[in-house]
Write a structure and sequence with these properties.
By secondary structure, the protein is mainly alpha-helical. The protein contains 19 helices and no strands.
């Protein structure tokens, strides 16, 4: 009897695929059950934000106010400012008028994002999906009206536009980021400038990153001193690690940036008293921190943290920019979680030089440096 190695490998592939399909089907079924049993009641009693660690209650209230023509001054003032990160979630609630349709729109955004990423990189989609779904922040973003799932779509569109060298798609991605979460737009613009010909240090990514940190250290306290002072008072009231904020206000962001990034990614893991606060909000944040820790440890073990890789470089540039907030904003770092998932799903290339020039993309064209 002749044993075919090819058949054995094919059979194992099918088994892995069946396991993945079962996992994803169970996940979708679970999210639908949570939606009807918990999300819908939370919308009725206005506790969605408290229960699911999102801002959905505020978005839905604002959409209802605009739909009913109540002309509440604070709602109108909030919606008329620019740039404005309220437009996407409030607009979605206003347009669809149904929490269930919003969830379906979120799943659609997820599907489109996966399609774009698959066309942009040589990645294991199965690994990417599993890693993405272990973060409870992904689940809450699928269940409720929020911005994170559109951060995923936005980042996917940006990476796809870079892979295909499409300038008009880059502009579309920047425009959508501006109305969904303008901090992500700033991250994309900074990355484009860092990789552009106007940057004489574009071949030296470490130097470029240090220059960015130094620039923020001096520019932000000088240019936005009053805003930083106001936010510092807010941070104090929230018992944030104040000495890091003091360093930032006094032109020492270069020393505070790494600890501030760590606070946003794994802060709840070292905040032991928070472990004993029995709220779903705290649990979501803790398990989100756990998922970050898992991905970071996996990347360290596989030696994937290299600025030669465009995903890691983009994540580093973005983290430096987003960490400026004096109040920890873990959800603002969801773009970084997406990039870490992609990097792990990408694996380690056999040709590091090719990785440097292609970002691991399709047909040696993805994200040119």
């Amino acid at each position: 009897m002749i044993v075919s190695l090819e058949k054995i490998l094919t059979k194992r592939f099918h088994i892995r695929s069946l396991i993945f399909v079962g996992f994803f089907a169970a996940y979708v079924a679970l999210t639908f059950a949570i939606f009807f049993l918990a999300v819908i009641p939370s919308y009725v009693d206005g506790t969605t934000s408290k229960v699911f660690a999102v801002d959905s209650t505020q978005y839905v209230y604002m959409a209802d106010s605009l739909r009913e023509g109540r002309n509440e001054p604070w709602v109108l003032t909030a919606m008329y400012s620019f740039p404005n990160s309220l437009w996407t979630p409030v607009g979605l609630s206003l347009l669809l008028k149904s929490a269930f349709l919003v969830m379906l729109a979120n799943y659609t955004a997820l599907a489109i994002s996966l399609f774009l990423l698959k066309r942009s990189f040589r990645i294991s989609v199965k690994i990417f999906i599993v890693l993405l779904l272990i973060n409870p922040m992904t689940t809450t973003s699928l269940l409720c009206v929020n911005k994170e799932i559109f951060d995923l779509f936005n980042m996917s569109l940006f990476l796809y536009s870079r892979a295909k060298r499409s300038n008009w798609l880059v502009l579309v991605a920047l425009g959508f980021a501006l109305i969904n979460r303008f901090e992500i737009c700033a991250v994309m613009v900074a990355f484009l400038l860092a990789e552009g010909r106007l940057n004489p240090l574009r071949e030296n990514r470490v130097a470029t990153l240090l220059l960015l940190i130094a620039a923020i250290s001096f520019v932000m306290p000088f240019w936005g001193g009053s805003i930083l002072a106001q936010r510092f008072e807010e941070a104090q009231s929230l018992k944030v690690i104040s000495w890091l904020d003091i360093m930032q206000i006094h032109y020492l962001y270069v020393f505070a940036v790494v600890p501030k990034i760590a606070v946003n990614l794994i802060g709840y893991l070292i905040d032991v008293p928070a472990w004993f606060v029995p709220t779903s909000w705290i649990y979501i944040m803790i398990f989100s921190n756990v998922s970050y820790a898992i991905l970071i440890l996996m990347a360290v073990r596989k030696r994937l943290f290299s600025l030669h890789n465009d995903l890691i470089y983009l994540g580093a540039v973005g983290s430096v920019i987003v960490a400026q907030s004096l109040v920890p904003q873990p959800r603002y770092f969801y773009f970084l979680y997406i990039l870490l998932c992609l990097r792990l799903a990408q694996g380690r290339p056999t040709n590091e030089r090719e990785q440097l020039r292609t970002g691991g993309g399709v047909a040696a064209t993805a994200i040119p440096c």
